[in-house]
Amino acid sequence: MAGLEVLFACVSGAVARPQDAAVCFVHWEIIRNGYKCLGTGDEPRPGEKTSELLPPGWNASGELYTLRYRSNDGKTNLLFKAVTVDSTLIFNLMDTITEQVSDLTVNVSDYIDSEHLREFESVFRNTDDLAQKVKSNLLPSPKVESCKKTEKKSKRDTAAVTRPDIDPLRIPQRPGRQPDWSDPMAPFAAGGADLDPFGGRSGGMIVDPLRAGFPRSGFDPSAGIPGSIPPGAVPPGARFDPVGPMGRYRPGPDPDHLRPPEYDDMFM
């Protein structure tokens, strides 16, 4: 692996345990995948610069390794920790921006030869397998990040084009079309003429030919109807249902004058 030998040569003098060599290898895999190291510890320190090398004091504890990384484009910051538990190493990586966490547990003896800790040609074993595990289980997946960015962009675009008149629960209205009721602001006012007959609405359950909305003939029932109702029999302004046909002489034959053929009914 290009660059790993140079890195190991720089830190081989400080490698004192198999866990050191394992952390060195994982560090280089993080570098190869587009990151640079910022330094040790959980918090940034003044004057830090990105580097491909391991910072001073990176293996001071021997049981806990804490390193910080930044992507080459400066958009992602990673907090890396490795904890020694017996013969295993538990790697933990957190994106400090999204707070997404990934982890990887390995058996140190599967990948590090403790008998040749300072010999680059012999210290690492099964490097391809460990590199694949670091890339697939520990490092953020570029595909996942791309999908998340696309999803966020899609949500923003959807929110930008959403209009208040687009509602799947609403019945679409054509421009200029008005509802069937007379008052668009009161669609439930149907039946109001019956509930309030004298409210000025047309229709209703009270039959009044003088208030039916048709042209008035000027007929005054208080004046009486010759041959039917004498003058003064109907009080002025009273509601009046006409008795009999309006007008004594109507053109044309009256169907009440003739009986149906062979129909004998005393009430006809």
Automatic annotation (TrEMBL):
GO molecular function, one term: endopeptidase inhibitor activity
Family according to the record: Belongs to the proteasome inhibitor PI31 family.
Pfam families per the UniProt record, alphabetical: PI31_Prot_C, PI31_Prot_N
Region (Disordered): 141-180, 221-268
Signal sequence region: 1-16
Domain PI31 proteasome regulator C-terminal: 176-245
Single GO BP term: proteasome-mediated ubiquitin-dependent protein catabolic process
Keyword Phosphoprotein tagged: yes
Role, per record: Plays an important role in control of proteasome function. Inhibits the hydrolysis of protein and peptide substrates by the 20S proteasome. Also inhibits the activation of the proteasome by the proteasome regulatory proteins PA700 and PA28.
Organism lineage string: Eukaryota, Metazoa, Chordata, Craniata, Vertebrata
Keyword Endoplasmic reticulum: yes
Name of this protein: Proteasome inhibitor PI31 subunit
